[in-house]
């Protein structure tokens, strides 16, 4: 009863102070709004965009068929960007440059697309022609035009802000899922590029999430029919400028004479330029794709040499098999209907039934929400420090109230306010950003109460120490990190993963994931709730034991 | 001036008396970097723990399991059954499991191919995608190998068909009696295959596996042919012959193409200085300054609290009696936190450099950005103290504000930011400065712009704060 009157007193005081109240409920908004906008309109994970690929400027000094093949195979996982319109180059400040001047001023003659005649495929000693590469080249040509169309729209948006330090993320660059980039290498498997189906299989598995902020992501305007490929030297300048301004992560330069060198069997080098201050993860993805594409192109050509050797080999074969053998050697790639020998398929766990694939918010928000709940709530209870300093506690202890009762009252007041704050946070997420709240409101409420109780008790415990102000915030960042709020504990070394169970964040996060993302019910979050209550008890015990009610010292 | 110094000394003395405070300010950021380094390492690629289940009875399943365990980026926890894997991923213990189904070795030889299932926790599908990429990379040699084996077998079957004139003999392209991949895995002699075959020079350690130049000469005079039992048919012998020949040629070419591709990739930074070694960006390049920044900005609530408490407890009034201009009192509050901020930055960077080998570029340019950032931080503290009515407000509101700024500006995680709005935050300009110095090797002149903007922000914050502050 006395606990309740303390609770009532605290809440009354709070309700009377309108300013304080407003601040308390602005706090969850100050968190949910920026993080949602950051995930939605910025780069985020880039899955809201239709063309879910990283933009990579491609500078083609060659223009031959092998360069096209390379572009096409890069286009399977990246968005090669070859066209830069004159207005964009002007905004980059390249209109005065001798390389670009003619192009920018509209002298279209300088931009003729180089239609190099395809050199003859290599002839091998026995006269057997390697045909596989030529086939591949023609088959993929239509795809190439598609790729360049898809990227032509980009420069217009990218140039909105171009002071010396443009905002890095203003460009519609998108992140390619790791899955799409890495298959490039296995795909390059030997016989006639069989594995092409693999990337598609993986891609279709990627959740086609609803676009929650459609206005910001619609950049696709139809590409102009006129080709806008500047001269290669000018394109390289543009690419270098964009890299220097962190507008792109990397660019690929195909040297002159590329096709001829490949057909002549000579080694040749493609250059990958990168922004040294860029996103390292993205660079790794681009490099992986580029290497895969280079190996694939090499394989196609080197393998046709091998098939020539195979034809030579018929000389050793018995008389009557020579013809069929030569036949095989000359047409090694009759395997279109085959699936890749080994492919990876993503599946969901059997007993988990999802009504819809969780979107980015649902996947990302629980982690950040748990982290912020701790910040918000602990600051609430930490403020009782000021109550101790101005002597209120001493007065209350003169009344017949136990220490435990006094602190329980404080804890309850904090829980009531805290739960309201957290509910505001999730409600805004649900209403404004269409974040699902799961199927079990009861379980959600109980879990939220347990989490808030835990955070409040932690705040109480912290207020018994000399840590003040945001001093608690820094350790809380570490706890959030360990608890998996920022990246999954799966990435941690085993000892850190074991440690993560000692952090309440881990349990709270698991609970919210079960409810909000997996759509499970009360039973499945009972262990998490129990764990959070255990933490609460521990922190509260510590607080009661340690709390110095009388000291007015800091 | 001496008054100012006295105030700064007093504030720092108060700080010095609280060892807990010092631990938090200087130890926690270091702890943070230590964890990040343990997870992401220098390469920026974390090691991911996944479950793996092998339900296949053939030898290919075992080879896949071996390749997974050998992969540096994967840590394997082996389970007995597929159901167990489904259940554990379903309840979120780990986010992914690799499942090699029954009959995998046989299925690989068919047109449909074999499927390795990767069970992904849908709650973390985006994060778990990295597992698919890592498994793909780890299995790359096996994938190529299986493709070559099946292609070779296919070719042989076609030869045999034409030779026989019909599908009468040995027309079962399945693998019942020709499990050759088990006998002669192409890459058998290179079990130490580097799981990241794109890594520079030496993906295939064993060059002698297939001598260059004369692959088929070694294979053609197959001695085994003559040792075969009498009853072996001519078809079988031919099959063997073709198999050996094709395998030799194809694998030699594949190996050659992977090991020494005709088309090479030269990776170089955009402002290439030929005198400097190529420096790859690492995730820590942005994480270290980003979080150092965040931790330094956590000083703001302390600054605001200390000002407000002085007003609440009445010591401020006593200060006002002294012949000191009011703005100087605020300056005396602000500068100690500026100094602590600078010290915090320096400690974080020195530790990163000394213990985690993070290359930081020009120390002088770095120092300029540090000073400018700390000024902006402490001036923001004065501004917040001016606007926050009570200690409670200063505390709670500030933490959220500081975190929100870190998120918006992209300092917290480089790929998450709010374009446009981010340019209003001091974090954004500080990150521009830090990244220029650390990643691009910028000199002092190169960081003058972000440093200048930060100092302008500091001046604006302080002026507004000093004008608005109610001293009593």
- Nearest-integer average pLDDT of chain A: 68
What is the share of helical residues of chain B?
Answer: 55-70%
Counting H and I runs of at least 4 residues, what is the number of helices of chain B? Answer: 18
What value does the Rg of chain B take, in angstroms?
A: 33 Å
Give a quick summary of the entry.
The complex is a heterodimer of chains A (554) and B (472). With 554 residues, chain A is mostly helical.
Report on the structure:
The complex is a heterodimer of chains A (554) and B (472). Chain A has 554 residues and is mainly alpha-helical. Chain A has helices at 2-16, 18-41, 65-75, 86-91, 98-104, 132-151, 154-158, 178-181, 184-187, 197-205, 214-217, 232-244, 258-263, 280-313, 322-330, 360-382, 384-389, 392-397, 403-433, 441-463, 473-482, 494-500, 504-517, 522-546; strands at residues 54-60, 78-81, 250-254, 268-274, 342-347. In chain A, α16 (360-382) runs parallel beside α20. The longest helix of chain A has 34 residues, at 280-313. Chain A starts with a helix and ends in an 8-residue tail after the last helix. In chain A, 54% of the residues are buried. Residues 41-51 and 108-226 of chain A have low confidence and may be disordered. Chain B is α/β, with parallel strands linked by helices and 472 residues long. Helix content of chain B is 61%, strand content 7%. In chain B, strands 2-1-3-4 form a 4-stranded mixed sheet. The longest helix of chain B is centred in the first third of the chain and has 40 residues, at 125-164. The model of chain B is unreliable at 166-229 (pLDDT under 50). At the A-B interface, α2, α8, α12, β4 and α14 of A face α2, β1, α4, β4 and α6 of B.
């Amino acid at each position: 009863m006395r606990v309740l009157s303390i609770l009532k007193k605290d809440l009354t005081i709070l309700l009377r102070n309108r300013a304080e109240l407003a601040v308390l409920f602005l706090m969850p908004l100050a968190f949910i709004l920026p993080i949602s906008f950051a995930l939605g309109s910025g780069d985020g994970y880039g899955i809201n965009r239709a063309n879910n690929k990283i933009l990579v400027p491609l500078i083609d000094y060659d223009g031959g068929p092998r360069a096209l093949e390379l572009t096409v195979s890069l286009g399977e996982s990246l968005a090669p960007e070859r066209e830069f319109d004159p207005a964009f180059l002007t905004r980059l400040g390249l209109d005065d440059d001798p390389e670009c001047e003619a192009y920018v001023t509209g002298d279209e003659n300088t931009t003729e697309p180089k239609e190099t005649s395809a050199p003859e495929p290599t002839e091998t000693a026995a006269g057997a022609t390697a045909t596989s590469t030529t086939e591949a080249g023609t088959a993929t040509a239509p795809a190439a035009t598609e790729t360049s169309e898809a990227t032509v729209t980009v420069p217009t948006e990218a140039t909105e802000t171009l002071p010396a330090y443009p905002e890095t993320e203003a460009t519609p660059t998108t992140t390619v899922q790791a899955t799409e980039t890495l298959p490039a290498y296995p795909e390059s498997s030997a016989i006639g590029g069989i594995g092409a189906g693999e990337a598609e299989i993986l891609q279709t598995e990627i959740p086609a999430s609803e676009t929650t902020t459609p206005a910001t992501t619609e950049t696709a305007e139809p590409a102009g029919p006129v080709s806008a490929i500047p001269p290669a030297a000018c394109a390289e300048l543009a690419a270098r400028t964009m890299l220097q301004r962190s507008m792109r992560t990397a660019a690929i330069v195909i040297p002159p004479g590329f096709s001829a060198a490949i057909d002549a069997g000579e080694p040749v080098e493609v250059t990958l330029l990168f922004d040294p201050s860029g996103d390292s993860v993205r660079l790794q993805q681009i490099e992986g794709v580029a290497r895969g594409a280079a190996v694939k192109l090499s394989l196609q050509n080197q393998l046709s040499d091998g098939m020539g050797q195979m034809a030579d080999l018929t000389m050793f074969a018995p008389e009557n098999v020579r013809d069929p053998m030569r036949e095989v050697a000359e047409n090694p790639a009759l395997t279109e209907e085959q699936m890749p020998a080994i492919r990876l398929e993503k599946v969901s766990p059997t007993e988990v039934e999802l009504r819809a694939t969780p979107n980015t918010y649902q996947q990302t928000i629980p982690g950040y929400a748990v982290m912020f709940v701790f910040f918000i709530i602990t600051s609430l209870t930490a403020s009782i420090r000021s109550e101790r300093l101005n002597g209120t506690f001493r007065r209350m202890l003169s009344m017949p109230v136990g220490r435990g009762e006094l602190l329980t009252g404080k804890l309850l007041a904090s829980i009531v306010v805290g739960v309201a704050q957290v509910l505001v946070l999730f409600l805004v997420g649900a209403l404004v950003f269409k974040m699902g709240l799961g199927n079990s409101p009861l379980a959600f409420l109980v879990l939220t109460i347990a989490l808030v109780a835990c955070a409040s008790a932690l705040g109480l415990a912290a207020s018994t120490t000399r840590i003040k102000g945001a001093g608690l915030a820094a350790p809380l960042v570490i706890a959030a990190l360990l608890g998996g709020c920022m990246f999954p504990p799966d990435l941690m070394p085993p000892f850190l993963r074991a440690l993560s169970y000692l952090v309440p964040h881990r349990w709270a996060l698991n609970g919210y994931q079960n409810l909000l993302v997996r759509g499970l019910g009360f039973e499945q979050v009972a262990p998490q709730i129990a764990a959070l209550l255990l933490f609460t008890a521990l922190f509260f015990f510590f607080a009661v034991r340690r709390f110095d009610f009388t000291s007015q010292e800091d | 001036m001496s008054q100012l110094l006295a105030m700064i000394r007093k504030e720092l003395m108060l700080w010095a008396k609280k060892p807990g405070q010092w631990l938090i300010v200087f130890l926690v950021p270091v702890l943070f970097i230590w964890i990040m380094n343990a997870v992401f390492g220098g390469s920026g690629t974390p090691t991911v723990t996944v479950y793996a289940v092998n339900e296949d009875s053939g030898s290919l399943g075992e080879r896949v399991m071996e390749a997974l365990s050998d992969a540096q980026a994967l840590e394997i926890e082996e389970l007995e059954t597929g159901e167990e894997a489904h259940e554990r991923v379903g309840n979120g213990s780990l986010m992914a499991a690799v499942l090699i189904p029954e009959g995998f070795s046989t299925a690989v030889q068919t047109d449909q191919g074999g499927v390795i299932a990767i069970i992904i926790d849908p709650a973390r599908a985006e994060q778990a995608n990295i597992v698919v990429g890592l498994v793909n990379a780890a299995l790359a040699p096996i994938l190529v190998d299986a493709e070559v084996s099946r292609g070779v077998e296919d070719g042989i079957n076609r030869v045999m068909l034409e030779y026989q004139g019909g599908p009468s003999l040995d027309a079962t392209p399945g693998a019942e009696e020709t499990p050759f991949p088990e006998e002669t895995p192409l890459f058998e002699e290179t079990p130490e295959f580097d799981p990241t075959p794109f890594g520079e020079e030496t993906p295939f350690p064993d060059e002698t596996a297939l001598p260059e130049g004369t692959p088929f000469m070694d294979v053609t005079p197959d001695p085994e042919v003559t040792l075969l039992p009498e009853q072996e048919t001519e078809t079988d012998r031919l099959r063997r012959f073709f198999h050996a020949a094709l395998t030799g040629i194809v694998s030699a070419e594949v190996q050659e193409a992977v090991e020494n591709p005709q088309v090479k990739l030269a990776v170089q930074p955009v402002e290439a200085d030929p005198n400097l070694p190529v420096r790859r960006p690492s995730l820590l390049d942005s994480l270290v300054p980003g979080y150092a920044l965040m931790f330094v900005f956590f000083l703001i609530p302390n600054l605001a609290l200390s000002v407000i408490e002085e007003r609440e407890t009445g010591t401020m009034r006593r200060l006002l009696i002294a012949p000191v201009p009011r703005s100087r009192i605020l300056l005396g509050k602000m500068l100690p936190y500026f100094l602590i901020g600078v010290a915090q930055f320096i400690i974080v960077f020195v530790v990163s450099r000394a213990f985690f080998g993070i290359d930081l570029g020009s120390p002088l340019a770095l120092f300029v950005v540090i000073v400018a950032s700390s000024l902006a931080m402490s001036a923001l503290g004065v501004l917040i103290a001016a606007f926050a009515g009570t200690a409670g407000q200063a505390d709670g509101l500030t933490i959220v504000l500081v975190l929100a700024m870190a998120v918006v500006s992209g300092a917290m995680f480089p790929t998450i930011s709010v374009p446009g709005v981010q340019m209003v935050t001091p974090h954004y300009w500080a990150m521009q400065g830090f990244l220029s110095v650390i990643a691009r090797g910028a000199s002092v002149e190169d960081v003058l712009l972000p440093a200048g903007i930060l100092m302008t922000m500091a001046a604006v914050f302080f002026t507004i704060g000093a004008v608005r502050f109610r001293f009593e």
